[in-house]
Write a structure and sequence with these properties.
single chain, 248 residues, alpha/beta, Alpha/beta knot, Trp Operon Repressor, Chain A, 2 domains, elongated, binds S-adenosyl-L-homocysteine
Length: 248
């Protein structure tokens, strides 16, 4: 799979994508990465990518010509990419979206800056994504977030010791269960006895219960869509109500 970014700061991606799990995966050929510089598609001496908004107002907007030229040129070289734009007005990026993008072969992530983009640019987008309800100074962190979340799902990205199959949000729609490592006793805080028992069935049951409890406590909004039994749902809703009453 190939990720490509289009941005006025193409140099910010490399340091993050060169280290740890993603760095290894990339070196092993699990995914490829290309950073395009939007200014390569400007034609004036100052390599201008922005202009003042019609109708007045503060700040500058990214002008459409370089973005159209760039996306068209990149798209027509090789397989047509799935084109993602970023904006706080986009659809919220989540694990399901990451799973869907992991099935693409080529993804182009277009990063805004300044006060955003001329609205006509979004005609180039297959989808517009937002990281959440806050405003960043640019789309580069959003692109890195998407690349990170998607790349770790690709076959071979995580080592044998790690797995993307039993984590928060997927496949059950629950948060991950609580986890502990050595020491078994730390500053007076212990570890649930069952985890030390070596009894795999009891450990599995405890983890399920822990995942439901944590979801009910921290993200009750996820319970509606979670893959849990009626009995588990009743218990989770009771926990969520306790939380609302402040008794949890
Ligand atoms: N004026 C715009 C914000 C522009 S921020 C507004 O109020 O909606 C500049 C760029 O940062 C955007 O074009 C987008 O690419 C990126 N960005 C900012 N916040 C983001 C978010 N929550 N998710 C994804 N991208 C974001």
């Amino acid at each position: 799979m190939t990720f490509e970014t289009l941005s006025v700061f193409p140099e910010v991606f490399e340091p993050y994508l060169g280290v740890s799990v993603l760095g290894r995966a990339r070196r092993a050929g699990v995914f490829d990465f290309v950073a395009h510089d939007l200014r390569d598609w400007t034609h004036d001496r100052h390599r201008t990518v922005d202009d003042a908004p019609f109708g007045g107002g503060q700040g500058m907007l990214m002008k459409p010509e370089p973005i159209f030229e760039a996306v068209e040129a990149i798209s027509s070289s090789g397989e047509r990419p799935h084109v993602v734009f970023f904006s706080p007005c986009g659809r919220r990026f989540d694990q399901r979206c990451a799973e869907r993008l992991a099935r693409e072969r080529r993804v182009l992530l277009v990063c805004g800056r300044y006060e955003g983009m001329d609205e006509r640019c979004y005609a180039l987008a297959d989808e517009v994504l937002s990281l959440g309800d806050y405003v960043l100074t640019g789309g580069e962190l959003a692109a890195l977030t998407v690349i990170d979340a998607v790349a770790r799902l690709l076959p071979g990205a995580l080592g044998d010791e790690m797995s993307a199959v039993d984590e928060s949000f997927s496949p059950s729609g629950l948060l991950e269960y609580a986890q502990y490592t050595r020491p078994a006793s730390f500053r007076g805080m212990g570890v649930p006895e069952v985890l030390l028992s070596g009894d795999h069935a009891r450990v599995a049951a405890w983890r399920r219960e822990s995942a439901i409890e944590r979801t009910a406590r921290w993200r009750p909004d996820l319970l509606d869509a979670a893959d849990i039994t009626d009995e588990e749902r009743a218990r989770a809703l009771e926990l969520a109500r306790e939380r609302e009453r402040g008794t949890l």
